[in-house]
Amino acid sequence: MALMLFPAWLSLIGSSQADDLQGQRDCANLRIAVLQLVGDWSKELFLASRHMSRDGWLDANVANSAFKDVQLAVMYFDYAYEALPKTRKACRTLAMKFGTNVGGYIDRVRATGTRSAEGIARP
Fold this sequence. Notes:
- By secondary structure, the protein is mainly α.
- The chain has helices at about 1-10, 20-50, 60-85, 90-110; strands at about 50, 55.
- It is elongated and about 50 Å long.
- This is Lysozyme inhibitor LprI N-terminal domain-containing protein.
């Protein structure tokens, strides 16, 4: 569900000129928003493994390992973001690829109850 809404969410952000200061601010705001969204998605892993004080339907070890995969993906995203030219198109492409990879990974973990051995594809 979250993965289906991600492209629509990115399309709501307006375009800017590449060399415009507003474009750089938009790029930084997009980074913050994507990281916040991914953080919210990854919290769902813990909620699936812990329901109040009882065990949830997702194994806690799987949830913890998947959460670590998400943290690693965030570090790769930050590294790629720093190396990126701060243009609107470049930021949108990176955010879309990162959000799609992480969102799809989290959806697969929640649906199957297992995590893939490869982890999350790098942006």
